[in-house]
Amino acid sequence: MADGKTTGPDQSEKMIRYARLNLQRMNRLEKTVEILPDLREALNAIRQPQRWLLLTEGWCGDAAQNIPVIAKAAALNSKIDLRLILRDENPLVMDRYLFHGTRSIPRLIFMDATFTDLALWGPRPAAAQQIVYNGKQAGLPHEVWVEQVHAWYARDKYHSLQHELTAIIKSL
Question: How far is it, in rounded angstroms, from Cα 53 to Cα 126?
Answer without folding.
Answer: 20
